[in-house]
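Appendix B. One record, verbatim.
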Amino acid sequence: MPFPGDFNPQPLIKKLRRHLFNRIRAAEIALEKFPVPQRQIVNWLHALSPSAGRNRLLQYFEVRSLTGAAFNELRNLWRERSQWSLEEWPHRLDDPCVRGCPDRVGKIRGGGLKI
């Protein structure tokens, strides 16, 4: 069915295309909102100088929000952060328990793995 008289759909098509493109791009760029301790730890890791250990931790903590036992252990770690030096923090975060290993839940406060 042809369009009536002098109606030209091209401007509307271009406007719709631009709108859809902007929505798709915004959805791809939008960052996931992490829970408070995880967001603060990710921000702290970004502030550190680049290293292989830091990058490995960022790859893990930036992928998705932690849940369950891993999140609870991370929250406990964050509450007890004043007990450890800044140099010790990355080692504590690299512990498999923080990263969701269920057989070691609750044993993180004693120490962690070396980066």
